[in-house]
Automatic annotation (TrEMBL):
Organism: Eimeria tenella
InterPro entries named among the record's database cross-references: Acylphosphatase-like_dom (IPR001792), Acylphosphatase-like_dom_sf (IPR036046), Acylphosphatase_CS (IPR017968)
Name listed for the protein in its UniProt record: Acylphosphatase-like domain-containing protein
Acylphosphatase-like domain boundaries: 27-50
Stretch list, region Disordered: 1-23
Length: 50
């Protein structure tokens, strides 16, 4: 149900590092593309009412 506009590529990158106690920490980044519903609903209804 999602539609993307513009660049349809998404990127994710991850890196990990170890702390002194041996635990592994991860870092991830995501870009999500899609249609947000409900945005400008008030402006749309006011325009339609006029």
């Amino acid at each position: 149900m999602s539609s993307s506009s513009g660049d349809s590529s998404s990127s994710s990158s991850g890196s990990s590092s170890s702390s002194s106690s041996g635990d592994v920490l991860e870092h991830m980044e995501f870009e999500v593309f899609g249609k947000v519903q409900g945005v400008c609903f008030r402006a749309y209804t006011q325009k339609e009412a006029k």
